[in-house]
């Protein structure tokens, strides 16, 4: 296969600039997501760098070698910064500009300017260094990131391996073989690989940013903003999935339906803010009082629900009593007394359908309220 080098240079400049402008636009529309801003900068700097490097041999060799490679190193530094920002770290300008500054310094040395092999080695080493630093940022934060980082890591490692291979070959072969023949030479493949790598990184970055935004929106949509526990949507989705699993495994599951007592009176007497404080405290009590495999949520104003997989009625009764007793100790130190009524319904009576469990739990709760509140009642036919 033969690739025409000047065409490849032009294609590089055109596509990188176009992609950079598109990324700028996405950044602008995203309310300033810094990762996208850094990625746009990387693409635009890379496009400009390739353009200046492409001027070599047109009477502007010094400018091309010095400025072109400085721009390319700055693009590599900004590529690293893109992932730093993505994982929540701050921009570190000495690191970003370090490669470009080192290149500018080396260009003051006449031997460096006149020795292609040395320049090729330094440029490739810097590229490998920035690529590994970029991969290191993602790897270091892998436990905190909820998004898939495998494709980007694979892309970065492939790029580092390709550049290392190039470095090894340049040590074994005549440099003219690396740079020479231009139509079929190694430079053509180097340029093509770098081009594909930058495009791949831009799309992978965009995908990671989008995936994280979606996860954040979903988390917000599934959380009750006041108590910071799951809302009705989260409880319903989680419980339905749990019930399917319990049904398949033939295990019981029991629902606790909790309703704070005389909540309207509490609001009217002590104010809405104190009512909110009671809701927050009760939400925390539930979240801390259940096992990791249980689910709880605020499913209405002052109504909460818990689903306990694997728990039969008697086990659930103990949990409910514990919650009821702990509730009386909420907001100690204030004049407010909080109590809760709890209705219990289990899959032994209701089957594994959530709506039926909720309906039976509601009947049990109604009985607890009717019998004077601050008590736990089980559903009975
Ligand atoms: N502070 C506060 N109050 C809320 C919130 N959501 C609902 N409420 C109030 O909760 C009260 C519920 O009142 P009711 O449904 O009459 O029930 P109750 O007064 O608790 O009476 P019982 O359930 O029969 O013991 C209403 O006054 C709602 O305004 C909230 O987010 N914050």
From TrEMBL:
Swiss-Prot/TrEMBL keywords: Membrane, Transmembrane, Transmembrane helix
Gene3D superfamilies linked to this entry: 3.30.70.270
Broad enzyme group: transferase
InterPro entries: Diguanylate_Cyclase (IPR050469), GGDEF_dom (IPR000160), Nucleotide_cyclase (IPR029787), Rev_trsase/Diguanyl_cyclase (IPR043128)
Cofactor: Mg(2+)
Top-level taxon: Bacteria
Transmembrane segments: 7-28, 34-55, 91-111, 117-135, 147-169, 189-209
EC number: 2.7.7.65
Catalytic activity line of the entry: 2 GTP = 3',3'-c-di-GMP + 2 diphosphate
PROSITE patterns attached to this UniProt entry: GGDEF
PANTHER family in alphabetical order: DIGUANYLATE CYCLASE DGCM-RELATED, REGULATORY COMPONENTS OF SENSORY TRANSDUCTION SYSTEM
Domain (GGDEF) ranges: 251-381
One function term, GO molecular function aspect: diguanylate cyclase activity
Protein name stated in the entry: diguanylate cyclase
GO terms under biological process: cell adhesion involved in single-species biofilm formation; negative regulation of bacterial-type flagellum-dependent cell motility
Chief localisation class: membrane
Keyword Cell cycle: no
GO terms for cellular component: plasma membrane
SUPFAM superfamilies on file: Nucleotide cyclase (SSF55073)
Subcellular location: Cell inner membrane
Pfam families to which the protein is assigned, alphabetical: GGDEF
Record organism: Azotobacter chroococcum NCIMB 8003
């Amino acid at each position: 296969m033969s690739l025409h080098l000047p065409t490849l240079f032009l294609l590089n400049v055109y596509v990188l600039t176009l992609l950079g402008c598109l990324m700028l636009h996405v950044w602008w529309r995203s309310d300033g997501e810094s990762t996208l801003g850094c990625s746009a900068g990387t693409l635009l700097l890379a496009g400009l760098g390739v353009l200046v490097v492409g001027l070599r041999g047109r009477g502007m060799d010094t400018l091309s070698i010095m400025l072109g490679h400085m721009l390319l190193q700055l693009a590599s530094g900004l590529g690293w910064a893109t992932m730093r920002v993505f994982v929540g770290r701050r921009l570190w300008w000495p690191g970003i500009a370090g490669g470009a500054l080192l290149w500018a310094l080396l260009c003051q040395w006449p031997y460096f300017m006149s020795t292609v092999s040395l320049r090729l080695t330094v440029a490739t080493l810097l590229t490998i260094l920035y690529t590994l630093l970029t991969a290191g940022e993602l790897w270091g934060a892998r436990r905190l990131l909820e998004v898939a980082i495998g494709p980007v890591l694979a892309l970065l490692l492939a790029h580092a391996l390709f550049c290392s291979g190039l470095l090894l070959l340049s040590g074994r072969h005549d440099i003219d073989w690396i740079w020479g023949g231009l139509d079929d030479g190694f430079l053509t493949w180097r340029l093509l690989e770098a081009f594909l790598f930058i495009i791949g990184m831009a799309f992978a970055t965009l995908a990671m940013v989008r995936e994280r935004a979606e996860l954040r929106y979903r988390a917000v949509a599934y959380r009750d903003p006041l108590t910071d526990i799951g809302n009705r949507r989260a409880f319903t989705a989680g419980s339905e999935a749990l019930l399917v699993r319990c049904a398949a495994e033939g295990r019981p599951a029991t629902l606790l339906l909790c309703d704070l007592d005389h909540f309207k009176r509490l609001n009217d007497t002590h104010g809405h803010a104190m009512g909110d404080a009671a809701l927050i405290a009760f939400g925390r009590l539930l979240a801390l009082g259940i096992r990791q495999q249980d689910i709880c949520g605020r499913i209405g104003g002052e109504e909460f629900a818990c689903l306990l997989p694997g728990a039969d009625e008697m086990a659930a009764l103990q949990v409910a009593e514990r919650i009821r007793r702990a509730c009386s100790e909420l907001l100690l130190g204030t004049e407010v007394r909080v109590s809760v009524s709890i209705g219990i319904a289990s899959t032994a009576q209701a089957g594994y359908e959530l709506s039926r469990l909720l309906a039976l739990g509601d009947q049990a709760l109604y009985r607890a309220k009717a019998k004077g509140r601050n008590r736990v009642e089980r559903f009975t036919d």
